[in-house]
Structures are given as C-alpha cells and as structure tokens.
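In the design runs reported in the main text, the only information available to the sequence generator was the tokenized backbone. The following block is the verbatim input for one such run; it is reproduced so that readers can re-run the procedure and compare outputs position by position.
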C-alpha cells in the first residue's frame, strides 16, 4: 500500500509539472516583454511581434500631437508612428524652425504592435535619418528635367536627371522603398528624340544595371496613359513600367 501511495503521488506531481510547462509555453509570446511608452501616461507590453512586422519606411513627416504621421514616398501609405526613441519630435521642430517653408523627410525602421484601445500602430525601432526635404531626399522635389519611370512588380521608381552630358545622376528605389541605389548612370545609346534610349551603370559589386526607354503606349495601374515604356534590368531580374519624359523636350 505504501508503494502504491508513493507511486500515486509521483504520477500526480509529474502531471502537474507537465501542465505548468504547457501553460508556460502558451503564454510566452516574446522574449522581450519590456513595456514601451505610447504617449503620456500610456504603455503597452511588446508582445506578438514577428520578424516580418519590422519595416523600413521613407517619407514626408508631419506631427499630430504625440503621434508622427509619415506618408511613404512610393506607396503614399500613411503610417502612424509613436516616437519611442524620444528623438524625433525635438529634431522635427528644430528643422522647422530653421526652414519654416520646408517639409521634413525621414527614414526609419518601425515595428508593428497592437493596442486593444487604438488598434494597429507602429513604434520607431531605429532612426536612420531626419532632415529637410531636398532634391537629394528619396522623395524630394523632382527636377523638371527628370526622366521618371515606375512600375509595380513590386513597386519601384527611377529618376534620371537628363541633360546632354554622357553621364547623368539617377535615383532608383525598389521593393516599395525597401532598397535603393543612386549615383551616376551612363547614356549608352539614343536620346530623348531618338528612342530607344539606353542607360547603364554598375553597383558597388560590379553588377550591371540597365535602363531602356522605348516609344510604346503604356498604362499604369491607376489607368494613367503614357507614350513611353521603360524596363529596368538588375541582378537577372527585369522590371517593366511606364516612363514620363521631361516636358521641355516633348
């Protein structure tokens, strides 16, 4: 009887340990459950954060009380972001005080979380840059002499500031703003009045980037019609879209 009694206690104890272990596994949703402030007097626990919920965005910024509103350059999607670094608002106001008529451009890595009261929103995970919006910004004012090409495979956009020079400045953004290239691109053949027009450049690893503009009717996803089409070939991938040439040459 004593042996049976001890055996019953041992079985019961092991069952309890198994239940507690299973319960603990279900409740552990993040290795980091540090409270993150979401505004005056508010905080939530960083939970249910997956790796694919991290995103790098680049766009024009405005302030709405304790929330940052960012309009992403390529997609025009609006993101409501909480400044958990407590660095963005002071810098934003400083830029506005120095350049009252200018807009503010920002690049940052954000992470999505959830709040039962306000729904989905984002935290600033890493600030990349914050400055005055200029011609050199990712989505700054476009030169009137720029060739603009874009498509959605996924979203990409290229700007080439055109002139009679054989080498021209360009800015290429791919994957909805997740990656970008800029520098100088060489005019290989053709011109604005004699299409096709072909450009070539090499990245830091010597990989070829080729841009070809042809005289061909093109309609984008929004239904806008263009007289020229464009293709961008890079890393054995070809991206097709529509092109807009400088108005002064039409």
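Verbatim output:
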């Amino acid at each position: 009887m004593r042996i049976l009694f001890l055996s019953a206690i041992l079985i019961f104890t092991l069952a309890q340990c198994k239940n507690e272990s299973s319960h603990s596994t279900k409740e552990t949703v993040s290795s980091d459950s540090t409270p993150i402030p979401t505004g005056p007097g508010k905080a939530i626990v960083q939970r249910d954060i997956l790796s694919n919920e991290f995103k790098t965005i680049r766009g024009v910024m405005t302030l709405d009380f304790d929330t940052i509103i960012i309009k992403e350059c390529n997609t025009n999607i609006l993101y409501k972001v909480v400044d958990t670094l407590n660095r963005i608002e002071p810098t934003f106001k400083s830029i506005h005080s120095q350049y009252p008529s200018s807009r503010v451009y920002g690049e940052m890595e954000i992470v999505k979380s959830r709040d039962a009261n306000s729904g989905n929103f984002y935290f600033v995970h890493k600030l990349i840059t914050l400055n005055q919006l200029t011609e050199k910004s990712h989505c700054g004012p476009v030169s009137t002499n720029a060739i603009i090409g874009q498509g959605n495979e996924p979203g990409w956009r290229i700007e080439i500031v055109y002139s009679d020079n054989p080498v021209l400045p360009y800015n290429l953004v791919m994957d909805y703003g997740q990656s970008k290239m800029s520098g100088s691109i060489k005019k290989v053949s053709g011109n604005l009045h004699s299409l096709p027009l072909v450009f070539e450049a090499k990245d830091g690893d010597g990989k070829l980037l080729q841009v070809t503009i042809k005289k061909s009717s093109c309609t984008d996803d929004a239904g806008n019609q263009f007289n020229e089409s464009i293709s961008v070939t890079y890393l054995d991938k070809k991206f097709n879209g529509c092109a807009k040439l400088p108005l002064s040459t039409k």
